[in-house]
Amino acid sequence: MARALRIEDAAAEDLARRFGTPLFVYSKAAILARLERLRRAFARPGTMVCYALKANPNRAVCGVLRAAGAGAEVVSGGELSRALAAGFAPGRVVFTGVGKTTEEMALGLRRGILCFNVESAEELEALERTARRLRRPARFCLRLNPDVRARTHPHVTTGRAENKFGVEEGEALALAGRSRRSRWLDFQGLHCHIGSQIYELGPFRRAAEAVARALRKLEALGLRISLIDMGGGIGVSYAGETEIDPSELGKTMSRAFSAWPGARLLIEPGRYLSADCGYLLTKALYRKQTSRRSFVVVDAAMNDFARPALYGAFHPILPARPRGGPSRKMDVVGPVCESGDFLARQRPLQRVEQGDILALRMAGAYGFSMSSQYNSRPRAAEVLVDGSRARLVRRRETLADIVRLEVP
After folding, report:
1. Do 192 and 159 meet the contact criterion of CB atoms below 8 Å apart?
2. pLDDT for res 159
3. Confidence (pLDDT) at 153
4. Which of 19, 199, 247, 385 can pair with 41 through a Cys bridge, CB separation 3.0 to 4.6 Å?
5. CB 306 within 8 A of CB 342
6. Rounded to whole angstroms, what are the CA distances from 313 to 127, 186, 232, 347?
7. Which residue numbers are catalytic?
8. So what CATH class is 57-269?
9. Alpha-carbon distance 67 to 87, whole Å?
10. In percent, how much of the chain has pLDDT > 70?
11. Under CATH, which number does the domain 6-25+275-403 receive?
């Protein structure tokens, strides 16, 4: 019989009993192992790994990465505030996103962040106005849209010409040249991010080549290149997909940018660092058999974990304590009043009884960060495991929390 599930040295069933369910559990060791793998792969001197907070912004998770030397990539004023609260030095934070407000820009300028990744002419104008008002020059990169196809879900591709992100090469050259006339704009280099969940090296290579071509043209205009930010997007294996070898990606980037040895290379992994560290523990409430399907109704739902409903995403799911015996195909569904509320469909599972704990794997990225209070369901608690020690890093919401901000 298979052994009971342990997360590092903590038994999953014990965690569920102690903290309740649904429960997100994160492994500190898994986070650090992924970070170290990237560090070894990107051997170019001065490369900085900037963790993309959108994947999992929990301050304890951020704190693990910050203490290990990572920087941060943020896409909102809220994420910037979280990053600073987690202890990231402002000079190791980059701010991306197509819709930064002037209030968010002002926060970044006052705190002295490393760089704004600018995505349009009007945004650059707003950044200049804000910098002038505060009398603080704004360091910025221009986000290049290289029109590179990455074979991934259409909702998470970001490097095609029809996407809302970045500017084309001609506009990047014009904006960078124009910035030289402003004492409040400090051009640093180029940023590029072509999407998420990419399993092929080719799209990254083509994006790097496009960035290198643009950098050569910028240098011809007399502009100095200090930063080259190639974003994130390294795919992780949810259903047996073959992941890119990070060392090959690191070599690709080193070759592409060998002409700029003095420029600092930045990468922005989010999912790659946090997905594998996480589990969503959920309790079986009821079993249900129809003429066509077998269901297990659990206490986690699409409000807790939206990826299956949103993308049709596959996540491994297994019992915390296998009972043995033959497997049968089951749908694992939640209590929310929609047919799209499922964690797994037609998944072979051994016998599941009421009260059993199931573990959804690879749940450390875009789990809690995409959760909601739909159906007035309080959001789950979060726990960080370090060896045999487990500590609560976000308490479970209560019904009082749900209505706290409402004005009758």
Report:
1. yes
2. 45
3. 52
4. 247
5. no
6. 37, 41, 19, 13
7. 337
8. alpha beta
9. 8
10. 96
11. 2.40.37.10
- Assign 3-state DSSP to the chain and report helix, strand, coil percentages, each to 5: 35, 25, 40
Segments of the chain scoring below 50 in pLDDT: 159
Contact of 388 with 9, CB cutoff 8 Å: yes
Are the C-beta atoms of 281 and 343 separated by less than 8 Å? no
pLDDT digits (tens, 9 = 90+) for 387-400: 999 999 999 999 99
pTM of the predicted model as reported, rounded to 2 decimal places? 0.94
Residue count of the chain, please give it. Answer: 408
Q: CA angle 146-151-156, nearest 5°?
A: 75
What per-residue string of b and e applies to 163-186 under the rule 16 or more CB within 10 Å gives b?
A: eebbbebeebbebbeebeebebbe
Element (H, E) at 292: none
Domain boundaries, given as residue ranges, for the chain = 6-25+275-403, 57-269
Two tokens, residue 404: 């706290």
Q: Give residue 55's Cα distance to chain centre.
A: 2
Kindly report the average pLDDT of the chain as a whole number: 95
Cβ neighbours of residue 17 under 8 Å, at least 6 residues apart?
A: none
CA 39 to chain centre: 18
The secondary structure of residue 335, as a DSSP letter, is: S
Whole-angstrom distance, CA of residue 252 vs CA of residue 144: 18
**Distance from CA of residue 107 to its chain's centroid?**
22
Helix (H, G, I), strand (E, B) or coil at 279: strand
